Amino acid sequence: MIEFQQVHKAYTVQGRQIPALQPTDLHVRRGEVFGLIGHSGAGKSTLLRLINRLEEPSGGRIIINGIEVTALDANGLRSFRRSVGMIFQHFNLLASKTVAENIAMPMKLAGGHGSADIAQRVRELLVRVGLSEHAQKYPAQLSGGQKQRVGIARALATGPDILLCDEATSALDPQTTAQVLQLLAEINRELGLTIVLITHEMDVIRRVCDRVGVMDGGVIVELGDVADVFLHPQHPTTISFVQESEDDDFVTDEDWQQVQGSIVRLTFLGESTYAPVLGRVARETGIDYSILAGRIGRIKDQPCGQLTVALSGSESQALAAREQLQAAGVTLEVIRA
Ligand SMILES: Nc1ncnc2c1ncn2[C@@H]1O[C@H](COP(=O)(O)OP(=O)(O)OP(=O)(O)O)[C@@H](O)[C@H]1O
C-alpha cells in the first residue's frame, strides 16, 4: 500500500545539510495501523510528512496504491492528497469557523461538491466522531479531545484511504487519549482505513497499532508486530521505550544475585495468558517458582503477560518444566541458566 524504496531526506539550513532520514525501505500494509516511535529528532515527522509529500525527499521512490507519488506533478499531487487525511498534535482548526465549517473545508477546497452534499457529509462525520450536538460551536468552546475529533472528521471529509496521525494524542490527558485512540481503532476497523501514526509513547503503540517501527537517528532500527517488539525488544532504543512504559522499577541483575536456580522470562500471549499452566507444570514436574517480576495487560486486542521467575528444583525437573511450558504455548527465554 505504502512503499518506500531507499527514501532519504536531508534538510539544508544555511548551506549545511542536516540528515533527517537515512535511506529507508518500508512497506505499510493495506488496512493496518502502523506506528512509528522514537525520541525527539529521530526522524518520525519527516518520514510521516514524506508520505503525502509535505516534505520533498532528497532521493528514493515512494509508491502508494500503485502511484509513484515522488513522480507526480502539482496537479497529480493535489488529487493524490485527497486520498490521504492528516491529523495534528495541535489540531490545526480554523478558530473563526464553526465545527461544521471546519469539517466542510476540505470538500469546499476540493470543489465538485454541492452544498447539500457537503451538509449531508458533515452530518454523517459529526455522528461518526460523536459531535452532532456541537456543530455550531467554535473551536475555542471545545475541549482538547473534542477538537481532535473535529480534526479527525475533517481528515475523513474527502473519503481518504490513508490517515496520517502526527502525535495526535500528545496534547491530551490519558483518559482523552484513550478515547481518541479508540475512535481511531474504530475508523480503522469499520472504514478499513490504513493508519500511520507517530508517537513517543509506547502505550499509544500498544493500544492501537498492529505493527511498529522504532526510529533512532533517522533509521528504523527495529520493526515488527507490536506483540513481538513489545514483548521481545532487541534494540537498546526499543528496550528503553518498553522499560519507560513499565509502571514498576525494573528488577536489576543485582536483585537476581540473591536468588537461587535458573531464571527464565515467560511470555503468555492470547489464550495462554488465562490458562492455569504454571500450577499444572509445578505439580507435574515438582518444580517451584519464585516470581521476580511480572506484568499483565493487553496489546491491541490480545491479552498478554510476562513473568520473570526463578526455577528451583533439580536440573531434570527444570528441563521438564521448560519443555512443558513451551508445549503449552508459553515463550521461554533463559536469562540465567
Ligand atoms: N524543517 C526543518 N529544517 C531543518 N531541520 C529539520 C527540519 N525538520 C526537522 N529537522 C531536523 O531533522 C531531524 C529529524 O526531525 P523530525 O522532526 O523528523 O524528528 P521527530 O522524530 O519527528 O522529532 P519530534 O518528535 O521532536 O518531532 C532533526 O535533527 C531535526 O532537527
From TrEMBL:
The lineage of its organism: Bacteria, Pseudomonadati, Pseudomonadota, Gammaproteobacteria, Pseudomonadales. Part of the ABC transporter FtsEX involved in cellular division. Important for assembly or stability of the septal ring. One of its GO terms (molecular function) is ATP binding. One of its GO terms (biological process) is amino acid transport. Keywords: Amino-acid transport, ATP-binding, Cell inner membrane, Cell membrane, Membrane, Nucleotide-binding, Translocase, Transport. Residues 2-242 form the ABC transporter domain. Belongs to the ABC transporter superfamily. This is Cell division ATP-binding protein FtsE. GO terms for cellular component: plasma membrane. It comes from the Bacteria. The keyword Oxidoreductase does not apply. It comes from Thiopseudomonas denitrificans. It is a peripheral membrane protein. Gene3D superfamilies: 3.30.70.260, P-loop containing nucleotide triphosphate hydrolases. It is found in: Cell inner membrane.
